[in-house]
Model the fold of this input.
Amino acid sequence: MKKKDTLLNKVILLLKRINAPTYLNKYGPKKYTLAKKVYALFLRSEWKCSFRRTVRLCKDIDLPCPSKSTLHYILNKLPWKWIKNMLMISIKKQAGLALIDGSTLSRNRVSDHYIMRAGIKNRERRPTKISIMVDSRTKKILSARVRKKFAHDIKDVKYLIKNAKNKPRKIVADRGYDAEWFRRFLVKQGIRYCIPTRNYKHKRGRLTKANKCDLRTYRRRTIVESSFFRLKQLFGQNICCNTARNIKAEVFIRMILYNISSRFITT
Done:
């Protein structure tokens, strides 16, 4: 493997392009740079393990790694703007056709000690809801929305389109996104759509009645399903963090790693 293709150099380039400082803190001892700390978080997602096990594995292979508490701190204190910008930088170029869909990630079960101390009976935690928009040509994630609790897919569509790097020319989605207000929003944005209609028993809107779904274009919606499958196979289907902010940061780190795993970012 070439030196420029290593994961550490990809992380350094990402932080450089978002104008991140060399060190996160201005004061105190500086043993590890910001790039090495973020690199350790990326390794944790790549290895699908806990913070403690990440530190132990790095020691086994003689790789410098911060302590477990430092990894917790950097995940909690890493600015949310930097995380979103790293996802934008990992996209090289956006094509005209974008695919939208939603899925869930399960969360780790509650331990017996926590059940005894909290006095609860339910061991299962509510799954985390994620919605993504994928480029049909490069198969990279253009934008994402992460919720700690479950919500309908269509609630995140405006956020996905407004937070994308470039506005897509056409959007493909399943029947779950069939709504008159969503079609009006796409028309105002100048975006074409390919959304099949449901079998309505009541009156439908003007845009819904005039809708014609191209089946050849709609078949490309399976690309976003494949992206969900690959994302879960590579980095696991469980979320270890508990707070809403850390859950979002953990999922976005996986998506950034997913985008940069196929092709190196060019300057």
